[in-house]
Specification:
Length: 149
């Protein structure tokens, strides 16, 4: 049993050495194979190469686009629920609270690389309309175009 453990430990140490991880030390002869390797000075594993910054940028843009679609779908669902309840258009001041109440997550347009919620919603004219109301705005579902016969 001890011999098998030492063999496995040596194989794992050889793999780790080939991969360049911190577990590259071979176990000392004398049966220390069952002892976990000591963490580095900060107790963290070494950072892995995450690739070039261009790859990160593309991934971030794709994630932001996906998040933007999810946010707009969430807003549409809120507006559909309000329409069913005959509540009418939603004031922008209440959008964040309604979104958080329904979805249990904040309405954060900054994660979609946007700064202004009104400008974010205006990018989706097929989904929602922004209507000026005094010094603020209302959000409502976009009107469906009437089909001509």
């Amino acid at each position: 049993d001890k011999r098998y453990r030492r063999e496995v430990a040596k194989k794992n140490a050889a793999k780790a050495a080939a991969m360049g991880t911190s577990k590259a030390k071979a176990p000392a002869p004398g049966g220390t194979a069952g002892v976990a390797p000591a963490p580095n000075e900060q107790g963290k594993r070494p950072a892995e190469d995450a690739g070039s910054s261009a790859e990160k940028k593309q991934r971030t843009e794709a994630e932001a686009e996906t998040l933007a679609r999810m946010l707009i779908q969430g807003v549409v669902r809120i507006l559909q629920n309000r329409q069913r309840a005959n509540k009418g258009a939603l004031p922008m001041s209440e959008l964040e609270n309604e979104f958080k109440e329904l979805w249990k997550v904040p309405f954060n347009v900054k994660q979609a690389n946007e700064n202004d919620p009104v400008e974010f919603l205006r990018k989706w004219p097929s989904k929602v309309e922004i209507v000026p109301h005094g010094d603020s705005f209302l959000v409502q579902l976009a009107k469906k175009p009437v089909a001509k016969a």
